[in-house]
Amino acid sequence: MPSHLSADRSAAQPPQRGTVDALISQTRRLRGEVDAVRRDAPVDGEDPQGRWQRALCNLAMHQLNDLDEHLAQLRDGPPPVRVQPTAVPAARAVPAASRRGSLLSRVGSAEWNLQTDEASWSGELYQILGRDPAAPPLTLDELPSVVLDEDRPRLTTMVTDCLIDAKPIDGEFRIVRPDGGVRTVHMMGEPVLDADGSTASMWAVLRDVSELRRSQRTVSETRDSLQRERHIAQTEHRLAIELQEAVLPPWRGSLRFPQRGTQTLDLTARYLPSSTSALIGGDWYDALELPDGDTLLSVGDLTGHGVSVTSGMAMLLGALRGMAITGTQPGHMLSWLNQLLDASVQPALGSAVCCRYRPETHTLSWAQAGHPAPLLFRNGTGRVLAAPDGVLLGATSGAVYGQAEESLEEGDLLLLHTDGLVPRRWGSPRSSQAESGGEAESAAGTAAVQKLLDLAPRFDEARSTQDCVRMVVEEFGETEREDDACVLIARVGS
Fold first, then answer.
1. Which portions of this protein are annotated as coiled-coil regions (predicted)?
2. CB of 491 within 8 A of CB of 375?
3. pLDDT for 312 beyond 70
């Protein structure tokens, strides 16, 4: 960095104008492209990733703006400087480029002559430090007076190393302007030696990097915020999984629930996560042998994702089990669950099917709350059970849920599922037909139900319900489900 004021060195000459102009054009074109990306970045102040993206774009714009102006200064050559003894009117101290409002005022130069104790500043340096252009430039001894107290040792060390050990200066410090404003200045300089190798003066370029550092801090803060949000999301996801695994029975194959007498139920269930989201939903399945010998079968879905939804699902499942043990019938259980959701601090909607199977009479009593009806398979054919009335849980206060009964035979297979497996519309407001439990399924949902019913011949040949669930997973498990799903299959044995 040779001094343009040194008597034994020629002044730096600007490079070829056409070459620098081409670089300026490329810089401005790139700046326009970055600005387009910035405009397309999300503006939602609540989105940490969007804030981080915009902060990065703003930082890139600051750097490109500086690069554009630095290239312009390179093309035009060094700005004139003021020598201490010469009084220069304020109107002449500011170059035309600075009066145009360009960023050239962010870069100034200075030289301090150690032999004459004279200081020479460019007009831009006066602007950076906020000093009156008519005032004499500060000497090296006076310069620390405008530096923040905590940054003065850094400046002193840089200047001392430069003057004594001839080390180049390259560092930053903060200055306090007369109006109280604080600016961050990046200083680069080197000693100018005389003929006998002694330090005759020190020349430096000072750059106002306040906006650049502010943008960098913003990027750092938004990045940290994004990392915290991701850490929180990962923690919540792990907690949701652990809670779900603690609540849902870890069925990995067929389970047999011994009933009074000789009859058994062969049971298998599977949870199918969403293929488009890493979030854990509120789907559940459950089977519980009750004290009177009956078996509770249920599946359901609480709307939403995350820990709060998973904990809400656990609350509903616990309440459902408690009511079933007391002998409460399915229709009344759903009425109580609806009241529980309606009184919750965080309102939510849910759907459910509750079944109570009595082996002594081979009777299935069941009720539904805005949920797909169970499918019954017998002798190689399948059908959808006619659903009793029932609205979504939490949709209205004081809802009453109907109850239906179905006689089962040995070998019958009952399939319960949540609507993440078989899509359907939850219209709002729901029609009375939809409230009665499933006739208002969408065309896609109807086709999907038909695909399940078409599995009847294969179910009839299957050795266990585990094989049946595997068939369902093969049919639906690899599709692009937008939501989680559960499937439970029970077969009446002898």
1. none
2. no
3. yes
* Spans of all domains in the chain: 1-76+211-234, 79-208, 248-492
Query: For the whole model, what pTM was predicted?
Result: 0.54
Token representation of residue 128:
């950076």
CA 150 to mean position of chain CA atoms: 38
pLDDT of residue 310: 72
79-208 adopts what CATH topology? Beta-Lactamase (3.30.450)
Q: Mind listing the pLDDT tens digit for each residue in 450-487? A: 889 999 999 999 988 989 999 998 888 655 666 778 88
- CA–CA separation, 312 and 330 (whole Å): 20
Average pLDDT over residues 109-114: 90
Dihedral sign, Cα of residue 71, residue 76, residue 82, residue 88:
negative
Superfamily of domain 248-492, CATH level 4: PPM-type phosphatase domain (3.60.40.10)
Of 139, 187, 135, residue with least CA distance to 161: 187
Segment 381-389 mean pLDDT? 94
More confident position, 247 or 91: 247
